[in-house]
Design goal:
It contains 15 helices and 22 strands. The chain is an alpha+beta fold. Among the domains are: 218 residues, GAF domain (Beta-Lactamase, 2-Layer Sandwich); 126 residues, Beta-Lactamase (2-Layer Sandwich). The strands form five sheets. Strands 1-11-3-2-6-5-4 form a seven-stranded antiparallel sheet. β20 and β21 form a beta hairpin. The longest helix has 47 residues. The radius of gyration is 29 Å and the shape is elongated. It starts with 9 loop residues before the first helix and ends with a helix.
Length: 502
């Protein structure tokens, strides 16, 4: 194939999964009026905690169902301005329940675990504190992204007992590649596999920026509806974006079934407040996790994100420093020689060094000079004409030139990447940098072209049912141009413009 197509899905990305209006049965959801704490909406399984049905609870003030200390703590929280999910232990009757409280502008969401909260669970959480510290220390000691992910996958599987723990990283098109994996012997391995962006569509990715993890104890669950259907405060479906117990769209449950997975847990990895990747945990049978264990996942995801950020900032700083030093040497050469093409192409440091290119061409005063491996003069003239028609005012870059300019296909082996620096475009004066083709082999988890299968009506659809290796060869592309290279290209463009017009 000549390029890497975008496998994100507009269709999947438009499904309003935050307005699903159902919850998973391991939890009870209450929607409260923020001022009076009256219950205005509830999931239809409230009898498991309160002994009363959802219709019976509507308009009941919640503080009448709680112990006095619990009610006082909730009142205090409701009067504050916290936007985080706050965990509380609620005393209801003779039992205690873990609650996650979300304070909204005009209402409150409260998620309660159906299983009563046992004090032993707190002690068990304390008992593994040293293990968590050990895992954190290992992650903090890692010196590469690969090491971080390998350690994290191993430690999270050890702590959680999931059949499989994978860590995958998103690319620029939101396809995710598995870069670390720990699994039971009879689980299917996906290490090195890439999964199309439509597997985790945009609206699902966006929710990970609001909610650190997504837990599905049993994909065979029966959805629990909310009563009444419409939130009487917002006059719409209740936004469940932040809720752990939020129901799951049927297409994702089918996706898990096709993978042979019954329980799943996904935790985000962030970099600069942007979704970098996910920790995906799979189990063949239904599996219940305590809030404490979910919190461990959230904690370690923050540790992983922080370590990733530190290492990548260090790498960026080193690259930036090296690039700036090379740029400074080239500028010095221009002043020393008063010869732009010579200084760029034949000094101790050349533009090939500066931009990690294999070929360079400079046009100045109607003359063309070249260095390294690049197309012939006729092809360069044709390329320059094409660039001139684009009326460039800033540097132009592509790592797939033949996809932008059809006539570049015959020489894509030496010039699949182009960085064009137009320092006097009205005079057709440019610095052109070229990179050779780097063929890529992508091992997809199933055929990405068949990621969505439509029924005959053209409306209903299903996820693919096979995740076996499907290999794709991507040709006509080069290594991408780095952010610091594009930045220095603009700096060089401004310098050459000023110097050539002084």
């Amino acid at each position: 194939m000549s390029s890497n197509p975008n496998y994100d899905s507009e269709l999947c990305g438009k499904v309003p999964i935050h307005l699903i209006n159902t919850v998973q049965p391991y939890g009870v959801l209450l929607v409260l009026d923020r001022t009076s704490l009256a219950i205005i909406q509830a999931s239809e399984n409230t009898d498991q905690i309160f002994g009363l049905s959802a219709p019976q609870l509507i308009r009941t003030k919640l503080d009448t169902l709680l112990s006095a200390p619990t009610a006082a703590a909730l009142q205090l929280l409701a009067g504050g301005n916290s936007s985080d999910r706050i965990p509380q232990v609620w005393s209801i009757g003779d039992k205690k329940y873990l609650a996650l409280v979300h304070i909204k502008e005009d209402h409150i969401l409260a998620e309660l675990e159906v299983r009563p909260h046992e004090e032993e669970s707190l002690r068990s959480f304390v008992s593994i504190y040293q293990e968590i510290k050990y895992s954190m220390a290992l992650i903090e000691s890692a010196t590469t992204t690969t090491d971080i992910c390998a350690i994290a996958a191993r430690e999270l599987r050890r702590l959680s007992g999931f059949d499989k723990v994978m860590i995958y990283r998103f690319d620029q098109d939101w396809n995710g590649t598995v870069i670390a994996e720990q699994l039971a012997d009879d689980m299917e391995a996906y290490l090195g596999f890439t999964f199309p962006a439509s597997d985790i569509p945009k609206q699902a990715r966006d929710l990970y920026l609001r909610n650190p993890y997504r837990f599905i104890p049993d994909r065979n669950y029966r959805p629990v509806k909310l009563y009444p259907v419409i939130n009487p405060v917002t006059h719409s479906f209740t936004d469940l974006s932040d809720c752990n117990v939020r129901g799951v769209v049927s297409v994702h449950l089918e996706y898990l079934a096709n993978m042979g997975v019954t329980a799943s847990m996904s935790t985000r990895i962030l970099n600069n407040d942007r979704l970098w990747g996910l920790i995906a945990c799979h189990h063949r049978t239904a599996r219940t996790l305590s809030f404490e264990l979910c919190s461990i996942f959230e904690l370690l995801s923050n540790v992983i994100s922080s370590r990733m950020h530190t290492l990548q900032n260090k790498e960026k700083h080193n690259s930036y420093t090296s690039t700036q030093q090379s740029y400074a040497r080239i500028v010095a050469q221009v002043f020393e020689t008063n010869n732009i093409p010579g200084a760029l192409q034949h000094g101790d440091t050349t533009v090939l060094d500066l931009f990690k290119a294999t070929g360079a061409a400079v046009t100045l005063n109607g003359e063309l000079t070249t260095l390294g491996s690049l197309p012939d003069k006729d092809s360069l003239d044709e390329l320059l004409l094409w660039l001139h028609t684009r009326r460039l005012t800033r540097s132009y870059q592509t790592d797939h030139l033949s996809g932008q300019f059809d006539h570049a296909a015959p020489y894509m082996d030496m010039a699949s990447g182009l960085l064009a620096i137009p320092f006097n475009p009205h005079k057709e004066e440019y610095v052109l940098l070229f990179r050779p083709e780097v063929k890529k082999i992508i091992d997809w988890g199933g055929d990405p072209g068949g990621r969505i299968v439509y029924e005959k009506d053209g409306l209903n659809y299903h996820p693919r049912n096979s995740f076996k290796l499907w290999r794709q060869t991507v040709s006509g592309t080069s290594l991408p141009w780095a952010e610091d290279e594009l930045s220095v290209a603009e700096t060089l463009r401004s310098f050459l413009y000023e110097y050539s017009n002084k």
